[in-house]
Give the backbone structure.
Amino acid sequence: YIIKPVFFDSELQGFSCVIAHQTDVGGAVPGSNTTNTTDIYQEGLRIPTLKLYEGDVPSEAIFAILEKNVRVPDKVLGDVRAEIAAANIGERGYLALVGRYGAGTLRRYTDALLDYTEELARQGIKDLPDGTYDFNGHIDADNIDDGPVDIRVSLTIQGDRVMADLEGCSPQVKAGINSPLPFTKAAVYGAVRLILDPNIPNSAGYTRLIDVKAPKASVVNPSHPAPCGARGITGYRVTEVVLGALAQAVPSLVPADGDGGNTIISIGGYDSELRPFAYVDLFCGARGGRPSGDGPEGVTHPAANLSNTPVEIAEVELPVRIEEYGIVPGTGGAGKFRGAHAQMRRVRCLANEATLQLRSDKRKFPPYGLQGGKPGSSSWNILNPGENETVLPTMSVTPMKRDDVILHIMAGGGGWGNPFERDSALVRSDVWNEMLSTDDARREYGVVIDPDTIEVDESASKLLRMKRADTR
């Protein structure tokens, strides 16, 4: 977090803030995304809120501490300086508005924007049906004895307010997946925001109407020194259970479940010249089917803002080779609107030795379907796929040597709606594009397609769907 106070005539106006993931902040594994830490002190550098600059003069001591405690200081310090530049741009932009409108007028505008957002959100929440809606989710957490981890919500909509009660979530765990309370709250706020009018401004005004209750010393509100470096996996699950609850209240607004949030593949160590490296790939994504269409492929989780690492950049800068990157046919959950197909990546290690860290999920508990849609496929991590392959847990740390290969297959998105209501032309399109076999089309959707001409037999399909409906 880079935070710059913005002053005008020596009076504090606000803050220009920039947040970014870093390639490495030290800790037990390269990339610092370990899921196997047992307390926060194993997770790398922790810096309290300190002045990075005094006026225009940098604090060389803090920059030196950063440089000596991360594996790839050139990348980390470069990114920190990019954040500083972005914060400066934010300051200049705000001061330009002050110069145009005056500080007092601009403050009235910003206060009014918060109030306006709150009022629009209030009307949107009033339109939701009152009631209490429960939903449960899980994290495989197959790297700890306490797994799987339960994420539960009891969501109450009453008038113009929403209460998310997370009582019943698992206690905090000795693994780096605990979600601090601010992160948990953000996950709830984001889920509710997804079903409100998209024209409502994105400001803190709407969060005034949402209350979050999370038990202390739980995986969604941990106590010190709980590790939390890979907290995203839990935050994603909080968003998903809130959406699952909202699907009961407003089924026409909520999509089916997706891949569970980006997988993190980290491969790090030292290259042939003993230079440290860290390949950290935030690999996403496969969304669930939506009330208005199929789940999109290659789109990050709704609680995130990420993208995959381009193959060319990874191979030029790091001792890895991306040998396969694609979509896995037949993995999207069947539905009137199917889930997105899973993605896969096959990465070869070109260093003599390295450490592999995986943060993935949704093997035991694949993405759920909604409104009659079927679940998506499960995720997989396979080391050296083939005759002597090793299936790795969803979360794990393991050594790699030169020419070892990790194959990761994401979970496929869940389906939305009755698969027998899917337009036969959409089923044919998937078969034509080799995303679905003719056997899958018949079995999952009741659509009969000639394997030679790839044409739909509408009469046979109608009869098959009628027979299948009678047996449901």
Q: What stands out?
A: The mean pLDDT is 95.
